[in-house]
Amino acid sequence: MARTTPSGGPKGKPATLALVAQRAGVSPQTVSNALNSPELLAPRTLERVRRVIEEMDYRPHQAARLLRTQSSLLIGYGVQPTPDGVSGLVLEYFLHALSDSADQGGYRVMLFAVPADVADEPDAYAELLRERSVDAFVLSNTHRSDPRPDWLRKRGIPYVSFGRPWGARDAGDWVDIDGAHGTDAAVDHLVALGHRRIAFLGWPKGSGVGDDRARGWREAMGRHGLPVRGLRAASRNDVDAAREAVAELLPLGTTAVVAASDTLALGCYRALHTAGLTPGRDVAVVGFDDSAAAALLSPSLSSLRQPLTEAGRACTRLLLARLKDPRAEHERVLLTPELVVRSSSSSRAPSVVVPGPRRPAGE
Fold first, then answer.
1. Mean pLDDT over all residues of the chain?
2. Residue ranges of region Disordered (predicted)?
């Protein structure tokens, strides 16, 4: 019987599908399913086959596979300029999970640059389709009046959105984070600590993600019978702009702030320091995204952690299912963020309201 090396076939030659099947104790068709249709296999079988594939360093003949399937096995993902602030790198977790799960399904994720101007985005997709024959796309940074879903749908190009389409007629397949659930949980947490004047620092109205996070705050405040009038401030996702916006809320007796991002929360920190106040002790602050900076701030920032690894894998699962059956019912996945409590919101609400700015005598 021929000997098989730990990472290859007989005498070091490249491993074959038949050898992988023999080593794993399954049929060649099962190995093929593990590579091309993993959803058909039981989890234990799939894990065993993938382990043997890795041990033997098996690589299917890519050229023959492409010719047989008439597929590029490429998934396109458009990368926009990183927004300012501390939350921009959070999507790295999503991209790693997306790329890893696509690789396990036999695909590669191709990153390509797209312009910040929404109106020009479809041109970047059209160019990639002409040059690379990409099989499908994962969309992110979805927004109201997003032109990409309609553009792809009219051309019969499979896609999945990371983010809801926010009002589009035909939503397609999507995966999203339930921002409203997150800010709702933040309010519940702050109310349990005794806070009653809980402000919201978000983005200007019209952003699907921002409006969703504001809705969670507003509905939770209503459920607890707490006022919201005058307690909402808006800012672009910029630390200095956020500092200026939240400063107007501090003289109103605000004892806690829920921010739509960690970048906005950092702006809140700066406004509090300027006013001679301490985050966590005088005014509680809760951010959103649980960026790397959240645990490093002083005091450390409570924040809502998005399940980005799960989101990346879910996007791949939906997209591979769409590639396999273009006529299947659309699927939508809404994931729940987790509140990570740190020093900025770990103590009881102060017994006195936050004072307003001092005015000169006689004014």
1. 85
2. 344-363
